[in-house]
Amino acid sequence: MYLKILYKDDPFFKDTKCVLTIHNLAYQGIFEKEKYLQLGIPWDYFNMHFLEYYGKINLLKGGIVFSDMVNTVSPTYAKQIQTSQYGCGLEGVLREKRERLVGILNAIDYSIWNPKNDPRIYKNYSSKNIEDKYTNKRKFQKELGFKQKKNCLLLGMVARLAEQKGVDILSSSLDYLLKKYQLVILGLGDERYHEILKKKEKKFKENFSLHLKFDEVLAHKIYASCDCFLIPSRFEPCGLSQMISYKYATVPIVHHTGGLVDTVKDIEEKGGGFVFYNYTTEDLITAVERAQELFEKKGEWLKLIKKITRYNFSWQITANQYIEMYKKTLSL
């Protein structure tokens, strides 16, 4: 905003372009009108075309309006945020910007997330010695106080414990799921979900291990040891967990939204995960049950987990797309 307002006539910035990357549209920087003077911007810009948003200041709106290019972290999310369902009140502004709005998929660093040389897991493995994944599972079950059963589906989740991440429908599914499966959750978030999950852990202590904290080592163990990884997000700009879980031969179970659409195809479509399309407890449970059915077919399951370890979500591909976007922006 300052570049386009306060420095628009400065010859030093004559050829400078601005790209705004939106990671999560829900966080917009909204403030009361009374704070406007602190911005140091003329009142001329406090109107519906620039910074004004229902009588308040919206900094993200201003950033979108004044940027030469806007991108977000997945192609599907770039489309979804132009709709009323996902636009968080800014869908109109984004539709006006649609010719300069692109979605570029996020990526992961395989020097950190790779079971072949990960120092934080019990035993290293790759697609060539995939059976060693079950050494991790067995030792992790013991560490968590679970029964060490190779044939019991072990589910994992590492996430911010908020409604966006699907914790509402997951919580509603636990009375059913925890009678049949083992589950470990790592994360922090809304206190109300902390309390709900703590009660579930107390009720199902033999099958549910809850860790309300940030723990890098534990996160790596979850990815390496679990059979399936839960990502039931209500909306998801991109998501990295599915990319990581692929590398660790841990099959993602996801809601069909945002970046999950771009990265997880259902096994029925020859993909590498289990996808549910309606954001309901029932559909989440059905997806887990489908995973269980394939898990029982050991040959098919082994073929699936070997396949997903070969998926590539490295920064090399994504970086090239960013370079192309920057070149296009400079040519505007």
Question: Could you please describe the fold and organization of this structure?
Answer:
There is one protein chain. This protein is of the alpha/beta class and 332 residues long. It has 2 domains: 2-106 and 321-330, Glycogen Phosphorylase B (Rossmann fold, 3-Layer(aba) Sandwich); 127-313, 3-Layer(aba) Sandwich (Rossmann fold). Helix content is 38%, strand content 13%. It contains 13 helices and 12 strands. The strands form 3 sheets. Strands 9-8-7-10-11-12 form a 6-stranded parallel β-sheet, sandwiched between helices. It has a 3-stranded parallel β-sheet with strand order 1-5-6. β8, α7 (191-203) and β9 (208-211) form a beta-alpha-beta unit. It is elongated, with a radius of gyration of 22 Å. The two termini are 18 Å apart.
Defining traits:
332 residues; alpha/beta; Rossmann fold; 2 domains; 6-stranded parallel β-sheet; 3-stranded parallel β-sheet; 13 helices; 12 strands; 38% helix
Brief write-up:
The protein is α/β, with parallel strands linked by helices and 332 residues long.
Element layout with pairings:
Blueprint lengths: L1 H4 L13 E4 L7 E2 L20 E2 L2 E3 H8 L2 E4 L2 H6 L10 H6 L4 E3 L29 H12 L9 E5 L8 H11 L4 E5 L4 H13 L4 E4 L4 H10 L2 E4 L9 H7 L3 E5 L2 H6 L10 E3 L4 H15 L2 H11 L6 H16 L2
Parallel strand pairs: 1-5, 5-6, 7-8, 7-10, 8-9, 10-11, 11-12
Antiparallel strand pairs: 2-4, 3-4
Helix pairs in contact: 5-8, 6-7, 6-11
